[in-house]
Amino acid sequence: QVQLVQSGSEMKKPGASVKISCKASGYTFTTNNMNWVRQAPGQGLEWMGWINTNTGKPTYAQGFTGRFVFSLDTSVSTAFLQINSLTAEDTAVYYCARRVTLQTWFDPWGQGTLVTVSS
Amino acid sequence: SYELTQPPSVSVSPGQTAIITCSGDKVGNKDVSWYQQKPGQSPVLVIYQDSKRPSGIPERFSGSNSGNTATLTISGTQSMDETDYYCQAWDSSTVVFGGGTKLTVL
Prior knowledge:
The complex is a heterodimer. Chain A is an all-beta fold. Chain A is built from no helices and 10 strands. Chain B is built from no helices and 9 strands. In chain B, β3 (33-37) and β4 form a beta hairpin. Chains A and B meet through loops of A and β3, β7 and β8 of B.
């Protein structure tokens, strides 16, 4: 079945970087798009943007430019989210979610990766 | 920027019908999806393209969308349905989520 498995929780100090992985299985990785969604503690869902898994072209939502980097390793069907210059405000659960090309919904979602930024 | 507005909370008695709204300017012209998120878990798609149910989602979940309001309806609400729900749509190549609604079954 279609599945997204994310890397484990991370604890980082302010100013550090973190790289989260999202490994896909059960479908052809390069035919669907991968999206990233942030959920701060006790808050709602916030779309960060997506990466075209065929071309590698990233699209960043407003508020997620500069410090955020989407990338791929298609040889292992994995998408990555890197966040640089971490601050406490980056403490959140980060989800990857598949979107079939030209469709408007996300399914499935990864299990989420908690990133905690604290000195 | 485009906004989707959901009530923060909705209460329903077991067995009754829960209605969760998602308001936005001309949202009826957009495809709306709904996600259920239980505590500590990732969101699960329960409705897509306004009213379609993915396989495995119970028939008691239904959706509609017209004018400025999209609606998620849960018929015969069960205690297991008590959790958070989010609507989602696209506007100008941007994904927008509603703020979420906590459904309480009491």
